[in-house]
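Sequence in, structure out.
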Amino acid sequence: MSRKITVLNPEGSAPTVDGKSLAPRPAGLDGTTVFLVDVGFENSGDFMGQLQASLRESRPGVATEIVHLRTPFDPVPDVYERIRNEGSAAILGVGL
């Protein structure tokens, strides 16, 4: 007895992706607040601490604040909103 089967292509089709422009860059950083975001990967908190110390020494006119995400994969809207409202820029640290 013969049966018909349907075979699907496992490669699928890639969706159409529209390009987006980069965020506007500030003219300078003096007098601004830069958030240093520890995204929760191994050693990213250590790296953010070292970066903050380096910025304090080399760029004393720039305020920095380290914020921590609970995990690298879960969104944290309240942290993102705070960065948006209080910061001029953010640097994400992914660790080693």
